[in-house]
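Re: [ENG-882] Designed sequences occasionally contain unexpected residues at chain ends

Forwarding the minimal case from QA. Structure tokens:
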């Protein structure tokens, strides 16, 4: 096939970046951008030299695929519209507001044999991709994802805003059903939960401890994995990976350890994500982060949120 005709729906902070990535991909043609805010959509369209649409429905018949980067509450309506009209969809995370909505999107995409990709961009992080081959049997995983407060993300709580990134990565590494979830959290600057901690146990025995906050003074994106005879740490922000491996048994006062460290170019994970979506359409292959992956991450996020909000009731 020729170039995949694409558009971005919702060109706020993130949507603008998505549109820029399509312009960089040789196998894609950015037809236009859509947003109900006329001034904003014309500004972005002018920057990129493409058409501006204030009514997303006008894209039908003009594009093969869209990226939905609107507010979370609008994801379901928009993604459902495009899938129902035979258009492939890449939807920003979280894919929907509820698990039921996510299930319906997955069902429509399957029925129509369309690509539905979810924007869990951390999966395309070079540091994770480089470390993945080392992660054979995680026993314990610890994650810290902390960020300064940004008003643009407050339509959802911190679990759907930030923690879901790590939930998705963990689910991609631990191929085992979730056994139990215990979580706590608190609203700080908004009416929703702004800081949260979750302990997730898998039937395989793996335990994950995840902390997410959007009320931190500094940004931190660290992921640590402990497995038999090895400890691996990934800094998603800097691209630095450290691996410590036990190479023998205790000898007197010393334990033989081997240390490896490598720092990767941060790369462009969003460009890699967008390229993967276009490739999945052109090559008729599964998406790297499928709608089903997004659904499973949503379902786990819902269990975390339910436990948090149930506990918060006791404080009121």
């Amino acid at each position: 096939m020729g170039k995949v005709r694409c558009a971005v729906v919702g060109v706020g902070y993130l949507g603008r970046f998505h549109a820029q990535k399509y312009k960089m991909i040789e196998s894609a043609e950015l037809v236009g951008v859509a947003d109900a805010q006329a001034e904003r959509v014309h500004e972005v369209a002018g920057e990129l030299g493409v058409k501006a649409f204030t009514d997303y429905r006008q894209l039908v018949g003009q594009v093969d695929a869209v990226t939905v980067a609107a507010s979370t509450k609008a994801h379901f309506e928009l993604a459902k519209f495009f899938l129902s009209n035979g258009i492939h969809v890449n939807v920003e995370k979280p894919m929907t507001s509820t698990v039921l909505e996510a299930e319906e999107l997955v069902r429509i995409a399957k029925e129509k044999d369309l690509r539905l990709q979810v924007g869990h961009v951390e999966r395309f992080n070079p540091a994770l991709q480089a470390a993945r081959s080392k992660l054979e049997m995680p026993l314990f995983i610890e994650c810290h994802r902390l960020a300064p407060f940004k008003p643009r993300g407050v339509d959802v709580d911190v679990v759907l805003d930030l923690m879901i990134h790590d939930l998705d990565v963990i689910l991609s590494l631990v191929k085992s059903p979730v056994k139990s979830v215990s979580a706590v959290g608190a609203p700080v600057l908004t009416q929703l939960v702004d800081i949260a901690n979750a302990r997730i146990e898998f039937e395989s025995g793996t335990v994950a401890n995840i902390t997410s906050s959007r009320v931190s003074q500094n940004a931190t994106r660290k992921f640590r994995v402990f497995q038999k005879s090895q400890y691996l740490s990934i800094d998603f922000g800097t691209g630095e990976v450290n691996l410590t491996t036990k190479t023998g048994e205790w000898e007197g006062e010393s334990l033989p350890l081997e240390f490896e460290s490598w720092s990767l170019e941060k790369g462009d994970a969003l460009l890699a994500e967008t390229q993967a979506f276009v490739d999945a359409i052109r090559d008729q292959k599964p998406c790297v982060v499928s709608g089903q992956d997004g659904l499973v991450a949503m379902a786990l996020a819902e269990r975390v949120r339910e436990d948090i909000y149930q506990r918060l009731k006791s404080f009121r």
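QA comment: On inspection the terminal residues look reasonable. The chain has a mean pLDDT of 93. Proposing we downgrade this to a documentation issue.
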